[in-house]
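Re: the request from the purification team.
They wanted to know what the chain is likely to look like in 3D before they choose a buffer screen. I agreed to run a prediction and write the result into the notebook, where they can find it.
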Amino acid sequence: MKKAILFMTISTFSFTLMNAFVKYLNHFPTFEIVFFRSIGSLVLASSYIFIKGIPILGHNRKLMLLRSLVGLTAMSLFFMSLKYLSVGTAVSLRYIAPIFATLFAVVLLKERLRAVQWLLFIIAFCGVLVIKGFDSTINTTGLLLALTASVFSGMVYVILRRIGKGDHPMVVVNYFMFTGTVIAGLLSISSFEMPRGNDWFFLLSLGVFGFFGQIFMTKAFQTAKTTVVAPLKYIEVIFTISLGVFWFGDVYTIWSLLGISMIILALSANVLIGKR
């Protein structure tokens, strides 16, 4: 239990730093940020695969390529939303992805939900409405970008379910990072802005923190039960909001905090009920 909590804490803090660095780098074109985020993790993931002797091409190649394209879309839209929203609000909105994942699973995979889970999803989505409806400082463009990113993230979850355990998780990640490196690299050529000074550190760190966030999250789920570990993922929101306040001077209204709390509490409860 203690190891799982430690692993998940390290994971959430790594993702928090990655998101904060993306926010700090928002003067760079989005696809350039995606490129650096992808190539750093690609190097680390490929190195791991070669060291462990894992077949790098995998088996479910079409599904992994589809997952990569959908995931790249989700990541790009989320990074774009950080140009308009506070980092804590953007991360909170991204976490409604399980709602869309569930809807896709019900329609495509014929899964069933209990009535209480539908109620919790409604509460979580009402949290989004509270954030936008009562907080006039929320940028509509950023909100729509974050919500659309969540829809694509929901698609990713369903595709991963279809891939199953037929391929090593690192191979799936490697497909994603390779696709991101190639496509984002090509799309960023025309608007590429040469990094200067500390920008190099922040850009190159994106892939490192993203990679270790993924690794330690995987370790946490392998160490303890999902019902214990999954809700700990939402610690990232607390870390991100705190870092946003102290680093970027973000200000949250009582309505924003209420909406964020509705999202996190409802989805955490859904994890516990769903796994039972």
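For the purification team: Residues 135 and 248 are 19 Å apart (CA to CA).
Please add any questions underneath this entry.
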